[in-house]
Specification:
Layout (H helix, E strand, L loop, with lengths): L3 H16 L3 E6 L3 H14 L3 E7 L7 H11 L4 E5 L1 H8 L5 H26 L6 E5 L4 H9 L23 E3 L7 H10 L4 H4 L19 H20 L8 E15 L2 E14 L7 E2 L4 H14 L3 E6 L13
Parallel strand pairs: 1-2, 1-4, 2-3, 4-5, 7-9
Antiparallel strand pairs: 6-7, 7-8
Helix pairs in contact: 1-2, 1-7, 2-7, 4-5, 9-10
The protein binds xanthosine-5'-monophosphate (XMP).
Catalytic activity: XMP + L-glutamine + ATP + H2O = GMP + L-glutamate + AMP + diphosphate + 2 H(+)
Enzyme class: ligase
Function: Catalyzes the synthesis of GMP from XMP.
């Protein structure tokens, strides 16, 4: 029967044979799949795996720094790219969700492309990067085949493909036969930190699709603060590991409030937490009222610019997990 240890042994051995002395380049996202794929490749070829981690400025609070540090800690050959301002510039004035996704996808490829050139430029004469590493898992393979149908236009999710074409790279996907729970078991066998393995799914475009309407650096900052309070409280109360996914959404409305003798007119955030098996259907999570009350108070008292917090009690379908 299948075991994670046996999978690691056979996969590392076959990667060694397949890749030899070749160089591989790979984009990491901080998510479970790309991290586990990178650690496997790293065991097989060491420093010949070149990892790139792009900060699009739309991750959770402090996440870029923390994840970069844990990658360095794991001994990965990783290069961080601070591309925040370029992403914000390209997104300025854009409010349509699919356009946001397309802009972010294209900007990401530009950044990766440039970082890949830089990696190539540092290699000795005659040595070329030949492979693109990817954290594709089995359900992604199935989805990228099946999304050719009419549902393909619902959301342009996926990160399968996305090859920078200048480099004619071959693709290596060590996890493409595994389901998510198997990836987690392989990650555990490889010693990947529980903080990475237990992480909720997080959309590639990140907070861009949790800020309804136009994105500004200020809205990102406010949302990161509120979300940080939410996620910390979920962790401290033991709820983080009981929900499939949770996040905070910045709504495109302001509402009236009162502070002392003054009326305020400030922003509203929505909290979302759902239970799910695969993201295809989802039920809203019945978080305890006391916990919601604590989170709401903390957000309103500590995050300047927010005077109202609401909780999303919609399930999928017909609602979706994200609001955009
Ligand atoms: P929805 O909102 O469609 O989300 O119910 C289902 C799952 O997909 C994630 N999601 C995305 N992931 N790029 C991604 O990589 C995207 O554009 C995107 N949109 C939604 C969502 O977070 C949930 O886990």
């Amino acid at each position: 029967s299948w075991t994670a240890d046996a999978f690691v042994d056979t996969t590392v051995a076959s990667l060694k044979e397949k890749l030899g002395d070749d160089h591989v380049i790979m984009a990491l996202s901080g998510g479970v799949d790309s991290t586990v794929a990178a650690v496997l490749l790293h065991q097989a070829i060491g420093k010949n795996l070149h990892c790139i981690f792009v900060d699009h400025g739309l991750l959770r609070k402090n996440e870029y720094e923390q994840v970069l540090e844990s990658y360095q800690h794991m001994g990965l050959n990783i290069k961080g790219v601070n591309a925040k301002d370029r992403f914000y510039q390209k997104l300025a004035g854009v409010s349509e969700p699919e356009r946001k996704r397309k802009i972010i996808g294209a900007a990401f490829i530009d950044e990766f492309d440039e970082a890949a050139h830089a990696v190539q430029a540092e290699l000795p004469e005659g040595v070329a990067v030949k492979w693109l590493g990817q954290g594709t898992i089995y359900p992604d393979v199935i989805e990228s085949i099946s999304v050719k149908g009419p549902s393909a236009t619902i959301k342009s999710h996926h990160n399968v493909g996305g090859l920078p074409d200048f480099m004619k790279l071959k693709v290596v996907e060590p996890l493409n036969t595994l389901f998510k729970d198997e990836v987690r078991r392989v990650g555990k066998a490889l010693g990947v930190a529980p903080s990475i393995l237990g992480r909720h799914p997080f959309p590639g475009p990140g907070l861009a699709i949790r800020i309804l309407g136009e994105i500004t650096a200020e809205k990102v900052r406010i949302l990161q603060e509120a979300d940080d309070i939410y996620i910390r409280n979920l962790r401290e109360s033991g709820w983080y590991d009981k929900v499939w996914q949770a996040g905070t959404i910045f709504l495109p409305v302001q509402s009236v409030g009162v502070m002392g003798d003054e009326r305020t007119y400030e922003h509203v955030v929505a909290l979302r937490a759902v239970g799910s098996l695969d993201g295809m259907t989802a039920d809203w999570t019945h978080l305890p009222y006391e916990l919601l009350a604590k989170i709401s108070n903390e957000i309103i008292n500590h995050v300047k610019g927010i005077n109202r917090v609401v909780y999303d009690i919609s399930s999928k379908p017909p609602a979706t997990i994200e609001w955009e």
